[in-house]
Description:
- The protein is an alpha/beta fold and 333 residues long.
- It has 14 helices and 13 strands.
- The strands form five sheets. A five-stranded parallel sheet has the order 3-6-9-1-10. Strands 2-11 form a two-stranded parallel ribbon.
Amino acid sequence: xxxxxxxxxxxxxxxxxxxxxxxxxxxxxxxxxxxxxxxxxxxxxxxxxxxxxxxxxxxxxxxxxxxxxxxxxxxxxxxxxxxxxxxxxxxxxxxxxxxxxxxxxxxxxxxxxxxxxxxxxxxxxxxxxxxxxxxxxxxxxxxxxxxxxxxxxxxxxxxxxxxxxxxxxxxxxxxxxxxxxxxxxxxxxxxxxxxxxxxxxxxxxxxxxxxxxxxxxxxxxxxxxxxxxxxxxxxxxxxxxxxxxxxxxxxxxxxxxxxxxxxxxxxxxxxxxxxxxxxxxxxxxxxxxxxxxxxxxxxxxxxxxxxxxxxxxxxxxxxxxxxxxxxxxxxxx
Length: 333
């Protein structure tokens, strides 16, 4: 009974402190037509302190969505256009010699910002990709012999184009695993497409000014509240079962999936699944996680963490199909 009272009190606190979610959602809707799932995923990453990889064909407002979210929050923003000739120093910064002072000084790169847009991240070679790893995982950067902490909050929001192969580099598994979510951005509906056309008639949508509606302190405070969202033991077991089913499908009577899976989700997948479900519960103004929260974020958390075999490619078995079968088989608490 005491636990129920605590959960009700927590839900009341969340309802009182989550008003900024509506402000951000409404602000995104004024610039981005449709794409509710994209907006929700960006908010989940923001509240979970997790990096996000957006994948979709050109023209689906991936970059515009990230820029709009950054503009709605009174925080610093850095943009890196990834190209094949990009160098690590172009991302993190470098040491610059000053003749006047006869000494080297650190010139910080665009990664020193609260929000970093890594546009077309798969166009840069492995050396540049590795420069992001320390920043994404350790939240710090080493230039020369000096190690500097990155701002808080720090969020990498990356985009990639799945249809082009020339001049692109596949992201290494070690880096994709550091993205909390991989969101596949779909085409808009025909009604949304007509709204986009009507909106563009009035001028370039991306040029419209966006005013901040929330500050960094509010986001940091909300993150602490998200950590208090209650997760029942049965939900924890459900999360663990979903991830373990990607590693050992035969334990869950999914033997037919074994030939298709080269490797399953790492412990980071389990952590991300629980964190994302908590953030979604916060967005939905609840102080506790329900199974639907876990199921709603499962695709975005797991799709880039399941390695497929050649047999899977031959059978046209995708990560999405695998996740769908696992969700349909694992018993919901």
